[in-house]
Automatic annotation (TrEMBL):
One of its GO terms (molecular function) is 3D-(3,5/4)-trihydroxycyclohexane-1,2-dione hydrolase activity. It comes from the Bacteria. Gene3D superfamilies: 3.40.50.970, TPP-binding domain. InterPro entries: DHS-like_NAD/FAD-binding_dom, Myo_inos_IolD, THDP-binding, Thiamin_PyroP_enz_cen_dom, Thiamin_PyroP_enz_TPP-bd_dom, TPP-bd_CS, TPP_enz, TPP_enzyme_TPP-bd. PANTHER family: 3D-(3,5_4)-TRIHYDROXYCYCLOHEXANE-1,2-DIONE HYDROLASE, THIAMINE PYROPHOSPHATE ENZYMES. NCBIfam families: myo_inos_iolD. SUPFAM superfamilies: DHS-like NAD/FAD-binding domain (SSF52467), Thiamin diphosphate-binding fold (THDP-binding) (SSF52518). This is 3D-(3,5/4)-trihydroxycyclohexane-1,2-dione acylhydrolase (Decyclizing). Keywords: Hydrolase, Thiamine pyrophosphate, Transferase. It comes from Paracoccus spongiarum. Residues 217-349 form the Thiamine pyrophosphate enzyme central domain. Belongs to the TPP enzyme family. Residues 410-561 form the Thiamine pyrophosphate enzyme TPP-binding domain.
Length: 611
């Protein structure tokens, strides 16, 4: 008969987490990012200090951004390992809500351990406590409920006996995977309890691979067999499943073009003959032409976000079949669903389809597209002081062709999806939530997950200003990555969208804001003050040289380059991109607005109505 061991609730939590193992090796929860406050320093802080290297603790600079680092780490490990993040009651915890939403949208595992109010209520209201006049059970941590997959409030020590296994069950479930919040009452953290010794037995968490239902498999195989010109939409689920090789083989032998979402880009190397590039709003001419001509669209591991589908105007009258481990996604928009792990589904379909092979894909369109990309990304003529985003991307691509390009928000994600030519696994984009401020912290988390790869963080001046402080953390931890900071002096992406929707330039670029003077921000000095190696590139040639020079450092390198505020991701590149549904005001005095609304109505009339 098992005995017991007396520990505080916080001590029990960290001991249990320290012996939860990943199937690929090591702890599933690698460690804990922590910023302490009165709601977690005495209980959880003491426990983390005591556990030491068995569950290491790292100090961040901001609760949201250290959570971004944890999310990028999980994404870099294709959801097979994760990290925890803890903050105190009040603003520390609510700072993490944005990151929780990001993880939720992207279906990525992270464990949020949020300090909470006193379960006993004896000292109520405590410092930073949010009081609800109509509900005595509410705390600020209830904000997490809509943006996590599992929420639990720990008001007694023994709640951990069920809450912790439930949390890891969610984080390792391929269909339900996402963030978890354990709101840990601060007095309960410090309470002692006699825990069963068996509770702390090591456990390996295996991520299962659901096999397809026979009837669903037969139906989707039948659709593929009857198709004339199918196209595959590759989503992030392909990478989560480790199905890259299976997809590469399936597409090549069947001669089916593969088009990519932001999350799926990099599953195939751009050199793969069936990789036709990005789909949709920020898509390539070759990919969008293949999608428009298709009579069957096969989505694999994709949420079919509006950027992928051109707000449901791209696929015409094609049938839709969706392979997804999550039934919610498999059944979207009237799709014929195949609920299964992506790799298993492709292997089973392969067996059923026999020697089926379609007519040759349009290799000429693919080659023409790649030639256009090369020309668009080529170094500018001498004397071009303000390069485009495309020229910046081309310089980095030439200097680091095997690197992982990563980004999150602004114009650059669309430009990278359109123009970056990745090696296999050479792309990391947070575009489900498109969260400004993810970039620098995300680059640190990605590098921690992929120390073998060069990480290239593209960030605009707007996103950098929102969240940059984890540069100091990366310097302290000696985590090297390269930041390419493009300065277009404002929110250039939304400025362009504002204009395209018929609006006047207003409150996006500094020059169009209510200010007394144009800011002159010295980004080199700022990054250097946090210990990073920082330099301003004189031009595109210097940018290439600086990217190459960064490769030998053991700290982050920040390379600042001024860019033009005018071009968008597809400007000057014929056939790039597709319509995006952004509602345009129906009335207004500006002629540009009236014209934009007329265009909007014409495009909206083309939208598919099945939801």
């Amino acid at each position: 008969m098992s005995g017991t061991i007396r520990l505080t609730a916080a001590q029990a939590m960290v001991r249990w987490l320290s012996v939860q193992m990943a199937e690929e090796g090591g702890r599933f929860i690698e460690g804990v990012w922590a910023i302490f406050g009165h709601g977690n320093v005495a209980g959880l802080g003491e426990a983390l200090h005591g556990i030491g290297d068995a569950l290491p603790t790292w100090r961040g600079q901001n609760e949201q951004t250290m959570a971004h680092a944890a999310i990028a780490f999980a994404k870099g490990h294709a959801r097979r390992r994760a990290q925890a993040v803890t903050a105190s009651i009040g603003p520390g915890s609510t700072n993490m809500v944005t990151a929780a939403a990001l993880a939720h949208v992207n279906r990525l595992p992270v464990l949020f351990i949020a300090g909470d109010v006193f379960a006993s209520r004896r000292p109520d209201p405590v410092l930073q406590q949010v009081e609800d006049f109509g509900d005595g059970t509410v705390s600020a941590n209830d904000c997490f409920r809509p943006v996590v997959r599992y929420f639990d409030r720990i008001t007694r020590p023994e709640h951990l006996l069920s809450a912790l296994p439930r949390a890891l069950r969610v984080m390792t479930d391929p269909a339900d995977c996402g963030p978890v919040c354990l709101a840990f009452c601060q007095d309960v953290q410090a309470e002692a309890f006699d825990w069963p010794e068996a509770f702390f037995a090591p456990r390996i968490w295996r991520i299962r691979r659901p096999a397809p239902d026979a009837a669903e498999l037969a139906e989707v195989a039948g659709l593929i067999g009857a198709a004339r010109a199918p196209v595959i939409v590759c989503g992030g689920g392909v990478i989560h499943s480790g199905a890259e090789a299976a997809l590469a083989d399936f597409a090549l032998r069947r001669n089916i073009p593969v088009i990519e979402t932001q999350a799926g880009k990099g599953a195939l190397a751009q050199a793969h003959p069936m990789s036709f590039g990005a789909a949709g709003v920020d898509g390539s001419a070759a990919a969008n032409a293949a999608a428009a001509a298709a009579d069957l669209v096969i989505g694999i591991g994709t949420r079919l976000q509006d950027f992928t589908t051109g707000s449901w105007t791209l696929f015409g009258n094609a049938r839709l079949a969706c392979i997804n481990v999550q039934p919610w996604d498999a059944a979207k928009h009237g799709a014929v669903g195949l609920v299964a792990d992506a790799r298993v589904a492709l292997e089973r379909l392969d067996a059923v389809l026999g020697d089926l092979r379609f007519a040759a894909a349009d290799a000429g369109a693919r080659a023409a597209w790649l030639a256009a990309v090369d020309a668009h990304c080529a170094a500018p003529a001498e004397g071009n002081a303000l390069p485009t985003d495309a020229q910046v991307i081309g310089a980095v691509q030439r200097a680091a062709p095997e690197g992982i390009a990563m980004c999150a928000a602004g114009t650059m994600p669309g430009a990278l999806k359109l123009l970056w030519q990745p090696s296999q696994g050479g792309y990391h984009m947070e575009y489900g939530y498109s969260c400004m401020g993810y970039e620098v912290a995300g680059a640190m988390g990605l590098k921690l997950a992929r120390p073998d790869r060069e990480v290239l963080c593209f960030v605009g001046d707007g996103s950098y200003m929102m969240a940059n402080s984890e540069l100091a953390t990366a310097v302290m931890r000696r985590v090297p990555f390269t930041v390419i900071l493009t300065d277009n002096r404002g929110y250039g992406c939304i400025n362009r969208l504002q204009i395209s929707c018929g609006g006047a330039e207003f409150n996006n670029m500094y020059a169009d804001s209510r200010i007394e003077a144009q800011p002159r921000i010295d980004f080199v000095a700022h990054a250097g003050s946090m210990g990073a190696h920082a330099v301003k590139a004189r031009d595109i040639a210097d940018l290439e040289a600086q990217v190459a020079a960064a490769r030998g450092r053991d700290i982050p390198t920040v390379i600042v380059i001024d860019t033009t505020a005018v071009p968008g991701p597809g400007d000057g590149l014929e056939g790039a991109g597709h319509w995006w549904d952004v509602a345009v005001p129906a009335t207004g005095q500006r002629e540009q607005l009236q014209q934009a609304h007329a265009r909007y109505l014409a495009n909206a009339a083309r939208q598919a109505q099945i939801n």
